[in-house]
Amino acid sequence: NAGVTQTPKFQVLKTGQSMTLQCAQDMNHEYMSWYRQDPGMGLRLIHYSVGAGITDQGEVPNGYNVSRSTTEDFPLRLLSAAPSQTSVYFCASSSPSGRSYNEQFFGPGTRLTVL
Amino acid sequence: RKEVEQDPGPFNVPEGATVAFNCTYSNSASQSFFWYRQDCRKEPKLLMSVYSSGNEDGRFTAQLNRASQYISLLIRDSKLSDSATYLCVVSRNTGGFKTIFGAGTRLFVKA
Question: Which residues of B touch A42 (CB under 8 A)?
């Protein structure tokens, strides 16, 4: 049981390049999300999904796309990288309980630098 | 104003000390409350959920005051291994599901 895995761990991009951050979970969780973490800002939600085929925007969605074709995978695409997207990106998953989503399990993060 | 506010610290305390962290949230529709711990350059991990009745897990006690929209975390008998950043987290499911993280409070426990 690997939990939540993310690849790559580190990435350096040039402005304007595109790339996909991969996220997978093997816990059969319905809910998956992407966050970015910047110094002094806490984690901010980029996009989330409550199940395969269903995605929605979070707090800071601009410049990012997501899709959820399977329960296990939730890739995050940077369309045209900008220096403002330099950050640590975390993927998380959880299973709903009643009306709320309880413990979120996080992947180890991807450290992205955009030059 | 941020929806979840925490004192950023850092808190520097000696081993054995008791330390308290506070957190306030602004949205009264918030439904679920948590404390997460994040070690340097690692992912956040759940420390404990927070209930109105209060809950305790060993040296850790969490309290929720819905009327004041205030959450607290008390750590007794601090250990060196408690050094980390503590994140206050609030969730709600109104107008879409949202989880809001505070910016975190850094704790350094010294020998």
Answer: 2, 4, 87, 101-104
